[in-house]
Amino acid sequence: MDLLTARRGLASLIVLAATLGMAQLVLSQARAPAGTGYRGASLEYQVKAAYLLNFTRYVEWPSQAFQAPTDPVRVCVLGRDPFDGVLDATLEGKTTQGRPLALRRVRSSADAAGCHLVFISRETWRTLGELPRTLRSPGRLTVGESDEFAQAGGVIGFVIQDEAVRFVVNAEARDRAGLRISSRMLSLAAAVYGQELGP
User: Fold this and answer.
1) Residue range of the domain that includes 53
2) Contacts made by residues 103-109, CB under 8 angstroms, sequence distance 24+
3) What would the pLDDT profile of 115-159 be if each residue is shown by its tens digit?
4) Is residue 79 a contact partner of residue 49, using CB atoms and an 8 Å limit?
5) Is residue 140 part of a domain?
6) Residue 199 falls within a domain, yes or no?
7) Looking at the 3D structure of the chain, how many domains does it have?
8) C-beta of residue 52 within 8 angstroms of C-beta of residue 29
9) How buried is 195 (Cβ within 10 angstroms: 0-12 exposed, 13-18 middle, 19+ buried)?
């Protein structure tokens, strides 16, 4: 993704955030923090890191996904990590729905036990194409980097449309995982497979 395309993606996320009432959050989180060594992260992945944070705030997990009210929401990156540290900076010290956020990196589907949100890069999915199926688990939000990932059984797939980062949702995969996604977030999806969008 070139710089102009990435900047348009960042602008689209700011519009998303404003619609959801989160403009200041995204403006502060979608930029790599100065002086931390994360300036090498592409704008595309700064945008995607901010999206992942916001997904945790607009997705409701089933109560059985947590053993205690103070358990963190565990965000995991499976396989190759394309974020170059910006996801760590984006999630650090943040809470969602009254719970802290915890970031882990895992190598396999088996290692993802206990993860509430699992991000799979396009490179990892190309290598391990069965991941959407093998990662299926109640209370697990799977996020990949293509429309095909969502159609193959992932819950959310990032897509590039009109040179902006957007996302699609697989409603069947969402329901299978027992997740509830805010109607406001769904209304901003580029597509929701298996469900009609409301007026």
Assistant:
1) 3-193
2) 103/74, 103/75, 103/76, 103/77, 104/74, 104/75, 104/76, 104/77, 105/76, 105/77, 105/78, 105/81, 106/76, 106/77, 106/78, 107/78, 107/79, 108/78, 109/78, 109/134, 109/135
3) 999 999 998 888 876 766 778 888 999 999 999 999 989 999 999
4) no
5) yes
6) no
7) 1
8) no
9) middle
